[in-house]
Design brief:
The chain is α/β, with parallel strands linked by helices. Helix content is 46%, strand content 10%. Helix 8 runs antiparallel to helix 9 (233-254). The protein is globular and about 50 Å long. The chain starts with 6 loop residues before the first strand and ends in a 9-residue tail after the last helix.
């Protein structure tokens, strides 16, 4: 990438057939749909991609299919998180060799009793950076249970060559983003938020330059970022208000299931199956999701029809 990545970098869902097997053709269709949604990049194999429910073989298949299908039309970010540094290095090298533009990784964790200290975290990211030439995005999320205070993130940004993008989705993300940008300066190349853009306006006020949402409504959320960065703050606020009911319903009621359900309804994929022990949405939650999606006339809701 010649220019810093900004805008919207949504996470792609991993589609399964109704019997739970990997839907390879669905993976290809998801990539094409997301490009038609006008995304600035696509992130694969993230938590919202159910990466923790994929075998190593399936993970490699999803990466290969996705990168082949995108074929350079937009940057692809490959998530490579694992507790073992050696596996993360292997995944990162494979992603770069296959054409990934960036990798994303969480700090190493395996429950609250297996979290390395700050030195181990720095060494983990340093080892991965030494193995590749593409940028690293750190995912700072409550899911890991790992504390990544601003001084530690700034230390790594200054010390580790490829460590330059940040997905901050902790409580009070805006305050953390503002502190990170102030302390890190030019080493903070890409400050992003997540959580389906539920705090996006506050995070943009704090200096965020983009967001990593799901693939549910990128074409509606992207203008919030572009208008804000262009100085049109009132227009950004108006667009955020338009999107907020669906953002809130996805974030609080649906989780990773929302994009799959809307994409199935729109003919992008054939099933919205999620792997056990995850459970499908209630019909009540699904009905509200589809009603809100229809009000916004989402691309995913009609793409395959």
């Amino acid at each position: 990438m010649k220019q810093p990545l900004t805008g919207i970098l949504p996470v792609a869902p991993t589609p399964f057939h109704a019997d739970g097997s990997l839907d390879q053709e669905g993976c290809r269709r998801v990539m094409d749909c997301m490009i038609d949604q006008g995304v600035d990049a696509i992130c694969i194999l993230a938590n919202y991609s159910e990466q923790f429910l994929l075998s190593d073989e399936e993970r490699a298949t999803v990466m290969r299919i996705s990168l082949e299908q995108v074929a350079g039309r937009v940057p692809v970010i490959v998530t490579v998180s694992h507790f073992y540094t050696g596996i993360v290095i292997e995944r990162a090298r494979a992603a770069q060799a296959m054409g990934a533009s960036m990798i994303m990784m969480m700090p190493p964790y395996h429950g609250v009793g297996l979290v390395p200290g700050p030195d181990g975290i720095v060494e983990h990211f340093q080892a991965v950076s030494d193995a590749i030439d593409i940028p690293i995005m750190v995912q700072d999320a409550p899911l890991s249970g790992v504390s990544l205070p601003v001084p530690l993130l700034v230390q790594m940004a200054k010390q580790i060559e490829n460590f330059s993008y940040f997905k901050i989705e902790t409580p009070f993300a805006a305050d953390k983003l503002a502190a990170l940008i102030e302390a890190g300066g030019k080493d903070i190349v890409g400050p992003f938020d997540g959580e389906e853009a539920v705090t996006l306006l506050a995070d943009l006020d704090a200096g965020a330059t983009g967001t990593m949402t799901s693939g549910l409504q990128p074409e509606k959320i992207r203008p919030i970022v572009t208008q804000y960065l262009a100085g049109n703050h009132d227009a950004a606020l108006a667009q955020w208000k338009l999107c907020l009911p669906l953002i809130n319903h996805e974030n609080r009621q649906c989780g990773l299931r929302a994009t799959k359900t809307v994409m199935m309804e729109g003919g992008v994929i054939g099933s919205d199956h999620v792997r056990h022990p995850l459970k499908p949405m209630s019909q009540r939650t699904k009905d509200r999701l589809l009603s809100l999606a229809r009000e916004l006339d989402l691309i995913a809701l009609k793409w395959g029809k």
